[in-house]
């Protein structure tokens, strides 16, 4: 399956894009890590694939 076809089929089946889905998975992981003592936002952002803690905080506010 081509990347274009995968993207189109994924959106038809789920109602969201692949990018939105990956972001949702990252946010879910970030929310789980926030409850762990001793872990910083910088550590969470890095572990979840965000560019920096500021990007993570912005996306958390938007969701």
Task: Give the SSE map.
Elements (H helix, E strand, L loop, with lengths): L2 H12 L3 H17 L6 H8 L4 H10 L1
Helix pairs in contact: 2-3, 3-4
Question: What can be said about this structure in brief?
Answer:
Helices cover 75% and strands 0% of the residues. By secondary structure, it is mainly alpha-helical.
Structure description:
With 63 residues, this protein is mainly alpha-helical. It has one domain: Orthogonal Bundle (Arc Repressor Mutant, subunit A), CATH 1.10.10.60. The protein contains 4 helices and no strands. α2 packs antiparallel against α3 and α3 (41-48) crosses α4 (53-62). It is elongated and about 45 Å long.
Index terms:
63 residues, Arc Repressor Mutant, subunit A, mainly alpha
Counting DSSP E segments of at least 2 residues, the number of strands comes to 0
- Any guess at the CATH architecture? Orthogonal Bundle
Count of helix runs: 4
Gyration radius (Cα, Å) is 14 Å
The biggest sheet amounts to:
none
Approximate shape? elongated
Poorly predicted sequence stretches spanning 5 or more consecutive residues:
none
Structural class: mainly alpha
Order of helices and strands: HHHH
Which fold does the CATH topology refer to?
A: Arc Repressor Mutant, subunit A
């Amino acid at each position: 399956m081509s990347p274009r076809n995968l993207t189109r089929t994924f959106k038809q089946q789920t109602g969201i894009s692949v990018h939105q889905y990956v972001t949702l998975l990252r946010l879910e992981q970030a929310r789980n890590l926030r409850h762990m003592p001793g872990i910083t936002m910088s550590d969470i952002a890095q572990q979840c694939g965000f560019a920096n803690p500021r990007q993570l905080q912005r996306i958390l506010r938007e969701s």
